[in-house]
C-alpha cells in the first residue's frame, strides 16, 4: 500500500513538473509573439543599442545561417519585459555570487599591493540598490612630501581596495567612485589588432593609450607602467601619447564615478593630446563653449552591469560650436547616436540604468564615417572601441573625412578583418591613430 502511495506521489510530482514546464514555455512564447499585436522596438535606451527585429525568411539567409542568428537575437530583444528579465537574472547572479563568497570565507576588504594600511576598520560589501551618502568626505590623497621629492611624482598611498562586487569592483574612499581590479600588462596578449597588419601600414600611424583603473594600482601608480609595456609589445608607431594622472584625486577629474569610460573633461584632454600628437603643438584646437548638466544621476557601465546605485554624479557634457557635417553608419547616411533626444536639462531619455554615454555620444558600429566637406584637408583613420565615441567628431572636425573602425564589429559586418593599409589606400587616407585602454588593445590570457 505504501509503495503504491509513493508511486502515485512520484507520478503526481512529474505531472506538476510537466505542467509547470509547459506553462513556462507557453508564457515565454506569449511574451514573444505579443509582437503580433504591438510594434517591435527599434532601440534599447537602457542598453544603448539598436535592437534586432524579427527577420524576414528567405532561403538564402536560412542556408547561410543568417536567419537563424537574427531570429535568436530577436527573441532576446523583442521579448516583452526582456530588460526586466535580464536585470532580474543579473540580480540573482549577484546574490548567488555574494552567498558563494561568504561560503568560501572570502574577506570583503583586500589589499592589492604589499603596502600596509594603518586602518583596521572592517570593510563591507556594497549591495545593489544601496546608495552611498550624498556628501563625500575628504581623504588624504598623498603621503607627506619630502623636500627632495619631484613635484610631479605619482602618489604612493595606503588605500585599501574594498570589495563592491566580488573579485571585480572596488572602492577606495567614500566619494562614490568604484574602480576595476588592476592587472599587470604581462597578463595580456596585444594581438587584438593583427601585428602583421599594423607592421604593413606605410602611412604615419599613432597610438594613444588611456590609463583606466584596470591597469593602475592607486597605491603605486608606477607599479605596472602599462604604457611602456604596450609600446614594447606592439609594432612600432610614428608617435605615442597617453592619458595619465598622478593621483587618485586627479583620476576622479577624468573618469566617471561608475563608468569605465573617460568623462567629458577626460575625453577633452584626450582630444587635445591626440591632435597635438597628430598635427604638432601649434594645431588650433576646439574649445568648449559651455557645460551642460542633465538633471539625472548617471549610473554608468560598472554600476549598470552589476545593478548598483552608488553614483552621486549627474550626467555632464561639454558643448562645442562645430561646423555642419554628415555621418555614415555602416555605409548608410544617418544620425550617429541620439544626441537630438537630449533637448534640455529635464527633457531627455532617462531610466534608472540609461546608458547616457552611449546614447549621447553614439553606439558602437563596425564603421562610422564623418564628412566635414573640407576637401583641402587630409582624411584620417581611427581604430578604436567605445572610448573614441566621445572624441570622434572633435578629431574629425580637423579633417575632410574621418573613418572610424571598430574591430569588434567590422568582421561580422564586412566579412573580413581590418586591413588598415588596404583601407587607407582605397579611401585616400594619409594618417591612422589607434585609441584605447589596455583591454581594447589586448586580451587577458586565461581570463
Task: Walk me through this protein's architecture.
This protein is α+β, with helices and mostly antiparallel strands and 447 residues long. It has a domain at 185-444. It is 31% helix and 16% strand. The protein has 14 helices and 18 strands. The protein has helices at 2-33, 59-63, 66-78, 82-103, 195-199, 226-233, 248-251, 264-279, 301-304, 356-361, 392-396, 407-414, 420-426, 438-441; strands at residues 43-44, 49-50, 109-110, 161-165, 169-171, 179-180, 188-189, 205-210, 239-243, 290-297, 314-319, 326-329, 332-333, 367-371, 380-383, 401-405, 431-436, 443-444. The strands form 5 sheets. An 8-stranded mixed β-sheet has the order 9-8-17-15-16-14-12-13. Strands 3-4-5-6 form a 4-stranded antiparallel β-sheet, with no helix packed on it. Strands 1-2 form a two-stranded antiparallel ribbon. β15, α11 and β16 form a beta-alpha-beta unit. The protein is globular. The model is unreliable at 44-49 and 105-151 (pLDDT under 50).
Radius of gyration: 25 Å
Question: What is the percent of helical residues?
Answer: 25-40%
Distance between the termini: 57 Å
Number of helices: 14
The shape is globular
What structural class do helix, strand and pairing data support?
A: alpha+beta
Proportion of residues in extended strands: 15-25%
Number of strands: 18
- Largest β sheet strand count, sense and barrel closure: 8 strands, mixed
Low-confidence stretches: 44-49, 105-151
Mean pLDDT score, rounded?
80
Strand neighbour order, sheet with most strands: 9-8-17-15-16-14-12-13
Amino acid at each position: 500500500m505504501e509503495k503504491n502511495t509513493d508511486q502515485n506521489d512520484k507520478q503526481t510530482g512529474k505531472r506538476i513538473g510537466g505542467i509547470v514546464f509547459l506553462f513556462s514555455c507557453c508564457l515565454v512564447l506569449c511574451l514573444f509573439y505579443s509582437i503580433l499585436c504591438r510594434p517591435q522596438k527599434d532601440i534599447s535606451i537602457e542598453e544603448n543599442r539598436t535592437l534586432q527585429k524579427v527577420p524576414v525568411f528567405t532561403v538564402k539567409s536560412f542556408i547561410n545561417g543568417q536567419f537563424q542568428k537574427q531570429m535568436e537575437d530577436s527573441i532576446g530583444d523583442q521579448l516583452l519585459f526582456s530588460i526586466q528579465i535580464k536585470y532580474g537574472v543579473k540580480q540573482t547572479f549577484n546574490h548567488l555570487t555574494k552567498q558563494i563568497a561568504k561560503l568560501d570565507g572570502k574577506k570583503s576588504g583586500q589589499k592589492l599591493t604589499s603596502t600596509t594600511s594603518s586602518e583596521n576598520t572592517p570593510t563591507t560589501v556594497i549591495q545593489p540598490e544601496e546608495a552611498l551618502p550624498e556628501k563625500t568626505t575628504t581623504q588624504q590623497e598623498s603621503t607627506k612630501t619630502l623636500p627632495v621629492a619631484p613635484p610631479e611624482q605619482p602618489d604612493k598611498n595606503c588605500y585599501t581596495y574594498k570589495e563592491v562586487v566580488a573579485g571585480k569592483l572596488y572602492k577606495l574612499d567614500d566619494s562614490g567612485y568604484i574602480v576595476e581590479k588592476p592587472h599587470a600588462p604581462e597578463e595580456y596578449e596585444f594581438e587584438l589588432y593583427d601585428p602583421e597588419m599594423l607592421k604593413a601600414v606605410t602611412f604615419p600611424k599613432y597610438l594613444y593609450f588611456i590609463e583606466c583603473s584596470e591597469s593602475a594600482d592607486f597605491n603605486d601608480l608606477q607599479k605596472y607602467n602599462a604604457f611602456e609595456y604596450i609600446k614594447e609589445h606592439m609594432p612600432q608607431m610614428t608617435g605615442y601619447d597617453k592619458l595619465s594622472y598622478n593621483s587618485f584625486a586627479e583620476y576622479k577629474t577624468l573618469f566617471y564615478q561608475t563608468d569605465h569610460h573617460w568623462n567629458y573633461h577626460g575625453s577633452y584632454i584626450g582630444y587635445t593630446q591626440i591632435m597635438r600628437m597628430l598635427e604638432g603643438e601649434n594645431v588650433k584646437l576646439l574649445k568648449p563653449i559651455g557645460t551642460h548638466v542633465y538633471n539625472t544621476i548617471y549610473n554608468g557601465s560598472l554600476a549598470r552591469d552589476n545593478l548598483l546605485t552608488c553614483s552621486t554624479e549627474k550626467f555632464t557634457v561639454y558643448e562645442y560650436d562645430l561646423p555642419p557635417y554628415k555621418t555614415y553608419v555602416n555605409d548608410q547616411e544617418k544620425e550617429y547616436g541620439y544626441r537630438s533626444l537630449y533637448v534640455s536639462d529635464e527633457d531627455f531619455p532617462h531610466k534608472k540604468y540609461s546608458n547616457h554615454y552611449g546614447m549621447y555620444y553614439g553606439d558602437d558600429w563596425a564603421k562610422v564615417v564623418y564628412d566635414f566637406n573640407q576637401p583641402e584637408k587630409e582624411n584620417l583613420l581611427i581604430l578604436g572601441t567605445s572610448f573614441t565615441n566621445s572624441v570622434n567628431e572633435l578629431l574629425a572636425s580637423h579633417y575632410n573625412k574621418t573613418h572610424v573602425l571598430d574591430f569588434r564589429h567590422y568582421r561580422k559586418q564586412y566579412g573580413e578583418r581590418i586591413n588598415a593599409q588596404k583601407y587607407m589606400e582605397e579611401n585616400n587616407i594619409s594618417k591612422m591613430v589607434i585609441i584605447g585602454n589596455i583591454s581594447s588593445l589586448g586580451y587577458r590570457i586565461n581570463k
